[in-house]
Every structure is written in structure tokens, then in C-alpha cells.
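Sequence only, no structure available. Ideas?
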Amino acid sequence: MPRIYVYFALLLLLVGAIATRAVADDPCCGPDSGLGFSGSVGLEVTFTPIPPLSYNIESGLTLSVSVAGFTLASETVFDLSGFESQGISVDVILGAVQIGDDILFDPYFSWNDLSIAAQIVGIGIGTDLILADIGSVQTPEYTMAAVLRLSSGINCGFSITTLTGFGAVDLVNMLGGITAPFSHDLLDLFYHTQFLFASAPSTKVTVVSGFYFEEELVRLQMDYMGLLSSSTTWFNWTGFAQEVLEIGYRFEEPSLALLAAIAIDDSFSVSDLDFILDLQIDPVRFTSRTSFAATVPPATLPIAFSGQGFALSFALCDQVTVGSITLFDATFMFAEQDLVIEATIDPVSLTSLTTFDATGFSGQWIEARVTFSGVSLYTQAAFDFSGINSVSFGFELTF
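Reply:
I predicted one. C-alpha cells follow.
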């Protein structure tokens, strides 16, 4: 059975390549035709040692074609054991309506998300119909889920978003997994370092058995005259489940933002509390995050200090950016230090991330990239005290 999907993936890539070549050679589809034809092709090969004496080689092939409001993207992954996964996404824009379909095989069918969204007079309406396999390879279990979306942006920086899930939970993943939008923006230095060499978190909801109401998410957000405020509330079939509140203020010249984020659990008790300070005086940016968390009985205080983080970034000659992330634990003892160097001297760019923990050196990640004429060649390496963890190299071609 896996061979069927291999042949299917190869056939899809072949058809895509033929279609791409045909359109590119068509004089009616030139740069001035108005069709907006574009695309990209990428290949990445990753070598991963497996102690004590084995290894694995994984290759990923990506293809993207976009023309006249139609976009097709494909990602195929193989390793030494054979076919790993095949992901296909199709997006079509028809005026104010956007239709999309995401299909995933890993290696057997596991996910199909058909989405329809429309934007009418500043109001967004959409629905996702999902068919997923939540069972095992030996015993597949196919189930349906649906997510209804409604959003509206009003003057004065006010917006509202609601998500309703039937047979689906973790709806916040449809909002990028962001539970507190202003906190996420102000903590950009922390997240930039965190995902510099790591994969971005999944944006898929979790499908559960049974097509019943499972979760409701309501987000209110306001950014007006420097005032920052948001409320994200979760409900389930039993009622209130969780809420995250944000309140803060942003000053101009120099750019200074102060924000407090409070998380309330289903017992209406404070579970987390963050205080964030973000200061930008070009070319320097400094961010501080102080965290508190709920305590466990018999503690006398409802919440206690749980961690402190400092982020610092500054640019040198607009070509080199140096960043530092320092984390302390609940006892205010040193927990982690991340040092980032990003340098770009066209057409070459270099990125380095070095991590230290309480015991000393923890890990090193390095990337070198050369970009010219729409082609990008790159290589990545990760290692620690035990040796090399992975080595990747690949290319990306855009046209």
C-alpha cells in the first residue's frame, strides 16, 4: 500500500512540473499577461545520526505554483525506510470568496480540511469541514469535524473573532496558536529565537470522536490611542473553561510598551500572570518578561514568582544583528542563555544560535545561505557535546 502513495506523489510532481513548463513557455502567460504566474521549487536533505552506529537520511521536496488566483502547493517527504508523508494544499480566490483544501497522507490518509471563507463589508465568515483519521495504522478511525469562523474589524482598532468547534478542540491553533495577541507581539524577540531553527507549531485543530459541540473561542481586541486591550475566552459543553486578559499601553518616541496578561482557569482562579516591558530605541530593542503562576496547596499565596526573561537585540551597520535571551527559573537562578548572530552581506547570509544552560554549553545551530537570481542555496548544522545532531542542505528556486 505505501507504494501506491509513492507513485501518487511522483505522478503529482510530474504533472506539476509539466504544467509549470507549459505555462512558462506559453507566450500568452508572459510577465505582462496579467495572470500573475509565479512558483517555487525546493529540495532539502537532512542527515541525522542514530546512536550508536546508525543514521537516517530524510529528503523533502516542495512545489508551489500560483496563477490567476489559484495556488497549488505540495510537500513530499522520504527517508531511508521509504515514503513518509505527502501534503497538498489548494487555494482558490473568487472575488470575495476564498476556497481552500488541505490533504495529508503520513503515510496513509490522515487529514482533509475543506475551508470556505468570505469577506463582506468588513465581516469575515468562514467554515472548515474536516475529515481525519484519529485511530492507529492497524485500526483507522475516521471522524468528521467542523469549525465555524466569524470575525469583524471595526474602527478605533477594535476587532472581534469567534470560533465554534464541533468535534474539534484546540481552536486557538487556527489563530496561529496565539492565546494572547499583544503579548505575542511584544515578545517577538523571544519567539524569533525560539523558532529560528525549530519548526513552527502546528496550526491544525485537534479532532475528537463524535460530531458534537466541543469548544467555543471568543476574542475581543482593541488597539486605540496607545491603549492595548484583549480578551480571549474559551467555553466547552460544560460552560466557561478559560480566559486570558491583556491590558497595557504603548508610548511613542521612544517606543515603550507596558502590558499585563492574566490567565483565569475554569475555577475562576488566576493560573498565570505576566508583566511585559518592551523598549525600542533604534537600533536597540529590550524586552523583559516577569511571570507568576498558581501555587499548589498547602502554599499560602495563590500565585508565586515562576520565572524571568530578558531579551536584547541591536543592529550593527544594518548588516549584523546580535541578540541575547536570558532566562531565570522560579528561584531566580540562571536557567538558559541564547546568543544569536544574524549577518547579511549580499548575497550571503549567516545565522548562528548558541545555547547555554545551568551546566554550561548546551547546543549550537549554524546556517549559511547564498541567494542570487531567484535561487537560494543553504546548509544547516546542529551539534552539542555529544557530536553532530543533524546536517541539512538544500535549495529553493523561485520564478
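Residues 2-25 form the longest helix (24 residues).
Hope that gets you unstuck.
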